[in-house]
User: What shape does this take?
Amino acid sequence: MSDKPMQAAVLGASGYTGAETVRLLKNHPHVNAVAATGNALAGQRLSDIFPHLRGSQDLDVVKADDVEWESIDVAFGCLPHGTSQDLIETLPEHVKIVDLSSDYRFRDPVAYAAAYGREHIAPERARAAIYGLSEQYADKIAGSNLVACPGCYPTAVLMVLLPLMNPLIVDRDAIIIDAKSGASGAGRGLKEGNLFCEVGEGTHAYGVGTHRHTPEIEQELNLRAGLDDIEVTFTPHLLPMTRGEHVTCHLRGDVDAIHAALATAYAHQPFVSVLPLGSPPPDTRHVRGTNDCRIAVFPDRAKGRVIVIAVIDNLVKGSSGQAIQNLNLMMGWDQALGLDVLLPLFP
Assistant: This one.
């Protein structure tokens, strides 16, 4: 590869995932974040918006139209769902895209429109995008120019379920997912439901029976199993914490077979730990600030039922860290490059 580092633009750098992408890129030996876009806050310094970046990533926030795109090699799309495609489709062809929004995750643009309430402006390009679940699609991500990173919930859920789909070793009609996330998963926008007094000292479910990550999860499960009728029960909850994601999957199958399938699938993956049977349940604090995923398998007291728990940091493995991992795969680098320096923040 060239000795010159790749030049990266972070689209939507004034949001949580944008700021996290900028922070993590500071560790990368082959990529420099040189442009940070944010139309509403253009003209400000990124380190004034996010003081924790002061002295390390003092970029000016600019409008996307003011970026010198001829010098940009890769763009990380950290824009809201529905708006990411509007900008990405205007970028020069030479710019590699790692999109963190939902806009290119759906292989069927009709399903995307049903979930997000707008038509895709580039349906053929959406069909061609590679779904960026790093550990599962590394071969397809390699050499790609457009990778669509999964949502944070689908990342944790699919890390558990995809290795169990082919061969199908669980009852496809009995998949129940109880998921919980920190408040940063809702973004930085001012919303009444995200206020401290609304989030603190309580927990609530949302999108009950209708959450738009459900069809994304089902899409990937059906593709892996070679079926078209797998449906899951998925219920997300908001926890009064900043970061972290905890998913509990209730399955019907054999505990030893499920554990063996997961252990085999991730035996050589640097960021996934399948804990030995009998281990204590993983805690979101065990992965906070890292690109790690920890998975544990437990027999349920109900005969034939199995409980699988996975934890990730929703802003790292569930978002910006996985995006950088995908760029590493796109470029043929070690997938851990720039991410293996991250240790959990505890307590």
Notes: The first strand starts at residue 6 and ends at 11. Residues 89 and 181 are 31 Å apart (CA to CA). The domain at 153-314 is CATH 3.30.360.10 (Dihydrodipicolinate Reductase; domain 2).
